[in-house]
Automatic annotation (TrEMBL):
SUPFAM superfamilies: Homeodomain-like (SSF46689), Tetracyclin repressor-like, C-terminal domain (SSF48498). Pfam families: TetR_C_31, TetR_N. It comes from the Bacteria. Gene3D superfamilies: Tetracycline Repressor, domain 2. InterPro entries: Homeodomain-like_sf, HTH_TetR, Tet_transcr_reg_TetR-rel_C_sf, TetR_C_31. Residues 8-68 form the HTH tetR-type domain. Residues 31-50 bind DNA. This is TetR family transcriptional regulator. It comes from Streptomyces viridosporus T7A.
Length: 181
């Protein structure tokens, strides 16, 4: 394995290992030593690349939020009509809720940090703003805000339900929120 400056992927491996470890053990189980072991980097690399565990967590969660926004963008970018946008939102909810359990855990770990710490709350606010911006290409701002909350809520409920509601119920919920008053 390359060392020092000849290992350009080291920082990215550390960030990926951080998210993997959080998904398995929660934020409380994260330490520099565990991350370094998982990333297969020397322990000293941790302080070389990050000023501390908080900076590492913020950067890892920022990358995770970017990933989820990219999922939103992939689903919504092809919609040209309101009906296509509604179907894209339905697909998005099912993609997120049927996706890796890892994503559900990471989202909930981030929300827990956001409930306790301003920096993580600000990170979540930026993430929500970006999601709503994408939704606002298809819906008015108030509807986009409601849809964003619906996406989060239905994703969580579908992820945790042993018999999650089918696509028809999701489609109906999206239609109700996006119906003209």
């Amino acid at each position: 394995m390359a060392t020092g400056h000849t290992d350009p992927q080291r920082r990215e491996r550390i960030l990926a290992a951080t998210l993997d470890l959080i998904a398995e053990e929660g934020v409380a189980g994260v330490s520099h030593r565990k991350i370094a072991t998982r990333a297969k980097v020397p322990l000293g690399s941790m302080t070389y690349h990050f000023t501390g565990i908080d900076e590492l967590l913020r950067e890892a969660f920022t990358g995770y939020a970017d990933h989820i926004v990219a999922v939103f963008e992939r689903h919504l970018s092809g919609a040209g009509t309101a009906d296509q946008a509604r179907e894209a939102v339905t697909d998005l909810i099912h993609t997120l809720s049927e996706g890796p359990r890892r994503d559900l855990v990471l989202t909930q770990e981030l929300y827990t940090l956001a409930a306790r710490h301003t920096a993580y709350r600000q990170l979540c606010q930026r993430w929500m703003r970006r999601s709503r911006d994408l939704l606002e290409h298809h819906f008015d701002p108030a509807t986009a805000r409601q849809l964003d909350a619906l996406i989060e809520g239905l994703t969580l409920h579908r992820s945790l339900d042993d018999a999650p509601p089918d696509r028809a119920l999701t489609r109906e919920a999206v239609a109700r929120i996006t119906a003209a008053p």
